[in-house]
Amino acid sequence: MESPFLKTEDFPKIKESNKGKFAKWAKARNMETCDAAAMIMKSTGKYTKEEVAMANYANNFGCKNKNK
Length: 68
Known about the structure:
This protein is mainly alpha-helical. 53% of the residues lie in helices and 0% in strands. The chain contains three helices and no strands. The chain has helices spanning 21-28, 33-42, 49-66.
């Protein structure tokens, strides 16, 4: 049974050209995606606006659900 409050069309869409971009960024630094997202969100001043946005999206829509 689907929840009437959670619909897949409610999630922000990722442009096709940006899919996998953050995972590639994390892999280049020998990190898991969720670990990289957590690291960036702890020190947002050290990273670019784009890196923070990608980490925030990963954290909100991928990593939070993964840890439950």
